[in-house]
Amino acid sequence: MLRRALNFEEQPAIRRLRRLAPLDNGALIALERALGAASRFGPRAEIQVEGEPMAEPRLVVSGWAARARMVSDGRQQYLSFLLPGDIIGWCYHPDPLASSTVVALTDLVLCPAPSDGPTLHQVYAMSRAYEEAYLLDQIARLGLFHASERITSLLLEFHERLSLNGMAQGHTFAVPLTQERLADATGLSTVHVNRVLQQARRGGDLVWQHGRVTLNDPAGLAARIGRAPVRVSRS
Amino acid sequence: MLRRALNFEEQPAIRRLRRLAPLDNGALIALERALGAASRFGPRAEIQVEGEPMAEPRLVVSGWAARARMVSDGRQQYLSFLLPGDIIGWCYHPDPLASSTVVALTDLVLCPAPSDGPTLHQVYAMSRAYEEAYLLDQIARLGLFHASERITSLLLEFHERLSLNGMAQGHTFAVPLTQERLADATGLSTVHVNRVLQQARRGGDLVWQHGRVTLNDPAGLAARIGRAPVRVSRS
DNA sequence: CGGAATTTTGAAACCTTTCAAATTGGGTGG
DNA sequence: CCACCCAATTTGAAAGGTTTCAAAATTCCG
Prior knowledge:
2 copies of one chain form a homodimer. Chain A is 45% helix and 20% strand. In chain A, the strands form 3 sheets. Chain A has a 4-stranded antiparallel β-sheet with strand order 1-8-3-6. Chain A has a 4-stranded antiparallel β-sheet with strand order 2-7-4-5. In chain A, helix 5 (147-164) packs across helix 8 and helix 6 (179-186) crosses helix 7. Chain A is α+β, with helices and mostly antiparallel strands. Chain A is built from 8 helices and 12 strands. The A-B interface holds A 51, 53, 67, 69, 71-72, 75-77, 79, 91-97, 99-100, 122, 125-126, 128-129, 132-133, 135-136, 138-140, 142-144, 186-187, 226, 228, 230-235 and B 51, 53, 67, 69, 71-72, 75-77, 79, 91-97, 99-100, 122, 125-126, 128-129, 132-133, 135-136, 138-140, 142-144, 186-187, 226, 228, 230-235. Chain A binds a DNA duplex through residues 146-147, 178-180, 188-192, 194-195, 197-198.
């Protein structure tokens, strides 16, 4: 039992939630119980479909997903990424319709997001604020940046978020995305993503091998594109 | 008194809020009182600054504002537009920091957003949901669309929103933006916005004169770019 | 080991930006 | 009411970044 509890608190999802706001015992118990009701999805599974009623809110336990908009000719734009510890479908109004499709990018484990008590509401509110801030970053990325800056900026976001939930090892972290998906996120063509990535590697900015990325100088890259860490609350 | 009350309900801001959710008498009274405490800003006034603590939530009574990200070299990207009836700074977590700068684009009148009772909370939740949906649209616009589609898409958004709050007359509505600002919103250069707009006029898609836009066939334009009206709730 | 998915390459076409200058338009003061 | 000025729009030409298409090379997985 003790072992299990320990393991529980080391889960990236729980780590993230704890960093957003202090969790009391009741919240931790509710979360541990919710984890027991987790369900599993394969890559390309659609967790939520744009325009359809939203399901109950869920917590990403492990794996990556993306919010996406698709257009008729098959192209798609990733709006944001959902990583372990992120919340899907938390809503403040009745009868909500999904404003985006959510698709699993890897094997994905979700569990119900327990909503007992004000502590968890607090945490979800923080989570929501971060989510919105990253949406704004994504707009600035697409509207203001060139190809290589877009990719740098997105990788820095991954690094920041994966550091928060304990999934980064220093400047290294797993990115389970193909270049095609990176293109869907950055509004570029796959071919161009490939070329820009090669240039970044040759320039010594990063190493990308076997699904793992190492940013050689995250702070330097951030400075180069004028990026500051995302903050949503004073405390 | 009766006259005043009538005028009150015809304000675009109030019209919008009423469409989001039914307002009970208490809410209407609170709103009318809040309008009495309105304050006025000139173009370029900064209502909120990215990274600084957020002020109390406010309601846009009249005029246009934009949420923006700026970079050091003076360029800026508009993230979204704030029109009469929109809410600025409504937040669900404590000690919030602004994740974007809000700047007045015209003469702007704001009033405190009253927060008495569940009715108004409901309305603000709906407003928030729309705001997020339009942010997602903006991402898709920048990531997926070509110049002319971006502009069309944005004008359709304006038309939709200004219809909701009663500020559109059929297919015609005021757009108090210069081409330079349209460029800031669409991630294009001013020069290119100019050329695309000329083409749209010559193609008979729209008329833009004296700050007023007429879309000759909104539904046709929407179909051309695959746009559906934004919906956030089933009801 | 074989087959599918992913990454890589080349060259040409395309869209968009940049720069600089001319033109138009709107508002102000004389 | 006209002259003037500043802001906004318009124009041209050249440079630049990105896409497209098609095919080759590589990697991954069963």
